[in-house]
Amino acid sequence: MLTTVGAPLRWAESIAMLRLPEHADERLQELMDRNNEGQLSDSEREDLAALAELSERLALVRAEALHLLGRKPS
Fold first, then answer.
1. Domain span including residue 38
2. Helix, strand, coil percent content, the chain, rounded in steps of 5
3. CA dist 14 to 18, 35, 39, 62, 72, Å?
């Protein structure tokens, strides 16, 4: 069952602009690089998995907001 909820345009625009904070994005990149080199500890692998999942979820939410706004990702 699909439910439609009305929301102010500014909310959709704000959601479309969501990004990982800069420090989290830098940490994600660092962990991905170290993972490619096979240099991650178990706790770093957990951090990588969590940050990657968060990044993916943000991307999906942003994509939906952009779709609703009739815009393409930049």
1. 9-69
2. 70, 0, 30
3. 7, 32, 37, 9, 15
**Structural domains in the chain (count):** 1
Angle 42-69/22-36 helices, nearest 10 degrees? 130
Is 3 a domain residue? no
Structure tokens of 18? 């969501």
- Rounded CA-CA distance 52/25 in Å is 9
- Is residue 16 a part of any domain in this protein? yes
Tens-digit pLDDT profile for residues 13-64: 999 999 999 999 999 999 999 999 999 999 999 999 999 999 999 999 999 9
Q: Does 27 fall in a domain?
A: yes
Q: List Cα–Cα distances, 33 to 36, 39, 73, in angstroms.
A: 5, 9, 25
